[in-house]
């Protein structure tokens, strides 16, 4: 699996939901920062940075190649703030930093090696912090390359266009390891007047192979929530038990978690749930899809360990994920990322996703 992480803040709407997905210590909401703000592209939410540093740590499968994309807009960002840090454990190989230009509120994002030296020419060029009318434009910035102590490669694109001169080789390794297994995102602004520094649609890829041999391009996360039970599947002997009523989907269709207000519960293995989902809000069917991510928030009612699987159904075939253990008595979020339809092994289409079923089951 080369698509490692995709975070568009469509499903993680508050601090609790971010902590449940990434775990304590891997997410910090800085002072003045807010999740799920309106006004971005497509679904219309984004992460609003504040005067304190907000940090998001994402573990990835170790690899010597890397790719990261992010939607960003900034007016008076903190100079030298590391928007991206690429690490192996706690060892930083290199970073992509904000550099203020001294020309109004303009800035650039530049590649720095572990010694803190800017790699010559490896930057986005000047990005507009203020268009003269008090607006900060959004940019989709991508960087990809390889880890090496002398000839590490890099290429930087802005809005799907390679920046002139922002392609080359450099020392992009710190220490003996040649892999990246963690990517950190940081956001902060100076906090004066209308200053802002916001992010959206973070995508992390490694192992640049298969479907991911090139740049992902300007991508955005779009959420789909359960909008009905799959009638052919629903039965009293095979399902979880709703906390109230007889329908199941509306027990878990809340985007902002309502925790114990509505839920499904079971104490048996091989109990399954499958749901229809609302059609994706794409402007045109056929928009390329780089991956589908399922999320499940769950907890135990008493200490112990249980196992679950994600389910995906295409046509008459149901595909289970690998077994996922959980052992917390407070809610935690599990996820499954699928680059291709696991039933057909074909690239995703919007029409196919809209026609599919998604769910989960308990297993021994």
Q: Describe it for me?
A:
This protein has 2 helices and 25 strands. It is mainly beta and 364 residues long. The strands form 5 sheets. Strands 1, 3, 4, 6, 11, 12, 13 and 15 form an 8-stranded antiparallel beta sheet that branches. Strands 2-5-14-7-8-9-10 form a 7-stranded antiparallel beta sheet. Strands 16, 19, 21, 22, 23 and 25 form a 6-stranded antiparallel beta sheet that branches. Strand 11 and strand 12 form a beta hairpin. The radius of gyration is 21 Å and the shape is globular.
What's the topology here?
Layout: E1 3-7, H1 15-22, E2 27-28, E3 34-38, E4 45-48, E5 54-63, E6 65-75, E7 82-88, E8 91-100, E9 107-113, E10 118-123, E11 139-146, E12 152-158, E13 161-170, E14 180-187, E15 196-205, E16 226-229, E17 241-242, E18 264-265, E19 272-277, E20 292-298, E21 306-314, E22 317-320, E23 324-326, E24 332-338, H2 350-355, E25 357-363
Antiparallel strand pairs: 1-15, 2-5, 3-4, 4-15, 5-14, 6-11, 6-15, 7-8, 7-14, 8-9, 9-10, 11-12, 12-13, 16-19, 17-18, 19-25, 20-24, 21-22, 21-23, 21-25
E-strand count:
25
Helix content: under 10%
Biggest beta sheet attributes: 8 strands, antiparallel
Radius of gyration: 21 Å
